[in-house]
Structures are given as structure tokens and as C-alpha cells.
Amino acid sequence: DAQDSARKWYEAVVREVDEDTVKVHFVGWGSKWDTTLPRRRREGSAMPPPAPLWTRTSKWRERIAVGDEVEIRESTSVVQRPKWHRAVVLAVGFEGEVPREIEGGAPLEVYDDGGGEGKTGRKRPLLLMGRTRQVLVEVPQEMHNIPTSPLRHKTNAGGVPIPQPPFRRWVNLYSEEISRIETHKTYKKGAGWSGGGGSASSPATLRYTMESKREPVEIMKPFNGIHGGGFVRESLRGIPAARGTVGLHNLGNSCYMNSILQCINQIKPITGYFLEGDYQKELNKANPLGSGGRVATAYGSFLNDIWGGEYSVVAPRILKQTVSMFAQQFNNNYQHDSQEFCQYLMDG
């Protein structure tokens, strides 16, 4: 255990040792936060030396149980700037069992294990005390990162929920992919959180309901007075009037895109093909003239939001950005032709 400059204690690993100081890495934090501490207690020193593991911090990993809330790294976050989301534990693996292959996990920093007896000298993600116990977690905010609808209440023969990474995935309990709840963020209790549904920190900016007498709500407005400039619109959680009938935010003169997306959404063979996930088997990632499957994957995620029953308004931001990567003429807030956008979308 080691204390940081804010005088908070964290689980830590010693990285370097010299005669008077030790360099420690705080578990769950990027290496940029590594700090040097005195090796022994010195009079007048503001920082205490490291303490034995779990003498100043909680043994929460040993007491983990189904239903506990934890923090999980977002699967698509950058290694040195990870995003953290609240998650719920669905199952806890047994100590000493053969570790499962981790799928859909977040990228983690790797460290030299130091070689020596029982070690390889390779760089690999940190496992505290070398322990390999795993837990199955559900991360509501990762629901938009899966290509198909979430598998609700599906379990295997042993009664364990079926993984659907990264939304529902196994993680190493003693890795840097998981932290104690409210280690990195503070969460508002009861603010729309439920273990298998929405999250208080979800992409939605507010909850929206279909009420005929409700006063109009201004969601966002431009800060510079220019239409299409300065907008930050996100998807709105709510129950749509009918399944698949979801509004699309104008992302700044993006009506050309929204109109064609609404039309294609009503072509049942195409929509069913993506919602069932069949397109994944036919992605041509090796085609030098294509997008490596990224446009199709972004469109599949978009349809999942449209038909998932969780949003009343969707902001197709990721889809627009993905298409714009391969058709630069759409990488702006100008007006464009709907048919031209449709051609590039279908080609991707």
C-alpha cells in the first residue's frame, strides 16, 4: 500500500528500489501517476514509506460477491487515459480454477515481470500477487458497443449468465481493469442505476417521455449563434412510441443523412440482417478499397440503438464520423445529397 500526494492510500506495486527511496505504481492508475516515496520513515518527511499490502487499504477483492458494484475500464478507452464505468458483478469464479480467455476487455498497460523463478521476463498486464481469479460483470454503458441486442436472462447449464463482451464480460479480479466502486468517479445513488439496465453515467443527457402536455425542452443550443456550430447532442433515453420508431438528432445540417437512415431502417431484410448479427460473418476486413468492416460495424451499432427500446432520440454521431473517415466530403456541417450519402454507406 502507498499514499499519494492527496494523502489517500491505494494498493501499489514497487517498481524501483534504491538505497533511500522506492518508486511505486498505484494499482488501477496510469503509470504517469507513479511516485517516489522514502524507503524508511524519516523525520520531517511529508510522505510515509509504503506499507504492507492491505494494511492501509481494504481487502475488497477477497470479499467480492454477486450483486456488488465495481468500476470497470471502458473497453475502447485509451491505455493512458482510461474511462471508468459503474458495473455490477453477476458471477464470481473460483480461486485456482483455470482462467478463462478474456474477451472484449480494455487495453491495459504492460510491465516487465522481472524474470526470475517462475517468471518469463516478458511484458504483460499486472496481476496483483499473481492471482488469476475472475469475475463476470455487466457494464450498462457498454451496451452500445455490442452489435446485437443484449441477451437478457440467458444462462448456461451452470446457471451463469452468458457473456456478451464488452457489455457482459469476464475480467481478472486482481487486474487493473477493475477497481473498487468510486475509486475514480463519484456516482449519485439511485440516479437511474440498475444492475441490468441503465446507468447514471450513461450517454443519455436526460430522460424523455412521450407526454402530450409536457412543455417543450431545449436540449442544447449553439454557443456561437451559428446554426450547426457548437452543438453537442447526445442520444436521449426513453421509451419510443413504437419499436424502431426513434427520432434522429440533427448534428448540424445532417438532415440529408437522417432522412436516408430512416428510409433504410424500414427495409426489413437489411435491418434484420444487421440486428441478428449475420453481417459479422461476411465482413471483408482485408479489402484495401473498403473500410475494414468499420462502416458496417458502426451501422450495426446504430440499428441496435434504434431497435433496442432504450432511446426515444438517437444521435448518429459515431456512424457519421465513421463514414466521414472514408468519404471526407461528409466531414463537416454542410448540406449534402441524401442519395450520395446512401451510396457511400451501402458501399461501406
Characterise this structure:
The chain is of the alpha+beta class and 348 residues long. The protein has helices at 255-265, 268-275, 294-307, 317-326, 338-347; strands spanning 2-3, 9-10, 12-17, 21-26, 35-38, 69-73, 84-92, 110-112, 123-125, 134-138, 168-172, 178-180, 236-237, 247-248, 311-314. The strands form five sheets. It has a five-stranded antiparallel beta sheet with strand order 11-10-7-6-12, with no helix packed on it. The chain has a three-stranded antiparallel beta sheet with strand order 3-4-5, with no helix packed on it. Strands 13-15-14 form a three-stranded mixed beta sheet, covered by helices on one side. Strand 3 (12-17) and strand 4 (21-26) form a beta hairpin. Helix 1 packs across helix 5 and helix 3 packs antiparallel against helix 4. The longest helix has 14 residues, at 294-307. The protein starts with a strand and ends with a helix. 27% of the residues are buried.
